[in-house]
Amino acid sequence: MNPFTQSFQSALRGATRLNSRARFAAERLEGRSIALDMPDARWLIVFANADVEVLEDDDATADATVRGSMPAVFAELGGFGSEAARLGDLELIDDFITSFRPNFDPKDVLTDLQDATRVGVAAVQSAFEGLRGVSPSAPPVDRDDEIRELKATIERLNKRIEQLEQQ
What we know:
167 residues, alpha+beta, Nonspecific Lipid-transfer Protein, Chain A, 2 domains, five-stranded mixed β-sheet, 5 strands
């Protein structure tokens, strides 16, 4: 088995172990198969023993086929739509896509990034306030450069938050 096929099979098998949707799909789709028909390769995804196997250059008849260039086929399997053709049992392909697609929403990633940026801004502001509130009994320390640097960092982070919120 070539390394790319092996990696694809490992990713699918990993999904069945880490993702309950994929695990239940592998059980539910027992005995079914999907052919990936690409110009330079034909793979057969076989559901057996509550697991997934990817066979290379297998001419066996599949329940469904996704046909097109490799990028188009994988875009289709990722649920992103493409120019790949879907043949046979279209519900099987939809079930596979829904069950094995990575489980995240890009909007959630953006929200997490915005939250992390806000925490970073708050930390920088807190550090800035701490520098300004140095004890009067402490020997004087010139912190003007540090303060300017922290203010510039706060300004950059605030601009980045505004950019992210506009997306």
